[in-house]
Structure formats: C-alpha cells, structure tokens
C-alpha cells in the first residue's frame, strides 16, 4: 500500500478521501466492475472509506481484522448494503474483536472465525480461509 512498509510516502493517501480515490483509480484501471473487495489489516484504511462511499459498486466485501473500523459510526455502517463476510482468526484477540464490534453494524454481514488462526488467518489456516471465502463467494449474486 502506498505510504506503508518500504513504499515511498504518497501525498494522495494521507486522508480517507485520498485513499478512497486511490482505490477507485486502481479498480478503474483494472477495469473491475462489481468486484469482491478483500481487505486484510492495514488495507482497511483504503477499503473502509471506499465501502462507505461506493459499497453499491462492490459485489461483496471481506474484511479480515482491518484497521480503521473505529473511524466510522454504527449509523454509517448501517447504511451499507454490500454483502459482507467478516473473517478472522480466533487467536487474534485484539484487532479482530475490535473490528467485529464495529463491522457487525453492517446489515448484510455474516461472520467466519478460523479456529487456531491469528491475525494473518489466511496464512495460518489457508485451507479453512479459502473454504470460508469460496462459500461466501458462491452465495453472491
């Protein structure tokens, strides 16, 4: 992600609006129409502003213990109609539970907890992760 890790700082992504615009540009450049947005950890800073502004442009949303969930109100989440799979590992007792507490206000959500997995549950339990993800995808219209 721009501005994270070893990537150079990017002025565009300093604000939530800038991060939303950045993600919008990425999806447009890739020619994606109604994608399912999978958002682990730090990518929540990009995905959540996009979801709240343009959730109708997504076929689905899969937050995996994303950061930034406290930045929005329960009322803002209630306005999103995007089908959502809240996914996390049961050993991620910090960020995952905080994200769940906030994201559970999304009206079209379901929750999948991966036993024995930590914050990067997709790395800890890849087979279980893919099974949960494919199950969710198969139910989307």
TrEMBL record:
Alphabetized InterPro entries for the sequence: AB_hydrolase_fold
Q: Which GO terms describe its cellular component?
A: cytoplasm
Q: Which domain of life is it from?
A: Eukaryota
Q: Which UniProt keywords apply?
A: Cytoplasm
Keyword Aminoacyl-tRNA synthetase recorded: no
| SUPFAM superfamilies on file | alpha/beta-Hydrolases
Subcellular location(s) of the protein: Cytoplasm
Q: Which Gene3D superfamilies match?
A: alpha/beta hydrolase (3.40.50.1820)
PANTHER family, alphabetized: PROTEIN ABHD14A, PROTEIN ABHD14B-LIKE
Which protein, by its recorded name, is this? ABHEA protein
Q: What is the lineage of its organism?
A: Eukaryota, Metazoa, Chordata, Craniata, Vertebrata
């Amino acid at each position: 992600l721009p501005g994270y890790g070893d990537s150079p700082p990017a002025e565009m992504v300093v604000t939530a609006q800038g991060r939303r615009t950045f993600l919008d540009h990425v999806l447009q450049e890739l020619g994606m129409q109604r994608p399912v947005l999978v958002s682990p950890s730090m990518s929540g800073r990009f995905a959540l502003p996009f979801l709240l502004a343009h959730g109708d442009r997504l076929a689905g949303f899969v937050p995996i213990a994303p950061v930034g969930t406290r930045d929005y109100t329960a009322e803002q989440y209630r306005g999103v109609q995007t089908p959502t799979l809240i996914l996390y590992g049961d050993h991620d007792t910090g960020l995952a539970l905080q994200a769940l507490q906030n994201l559970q206000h999304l009206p079209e959500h379901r929750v999948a907890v991966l036993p024995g997995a930590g914050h990067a549950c997709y790395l800890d339990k890849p087979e279980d992760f893919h099974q949960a993800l494919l199950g969710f995808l198969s139910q989307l219209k």
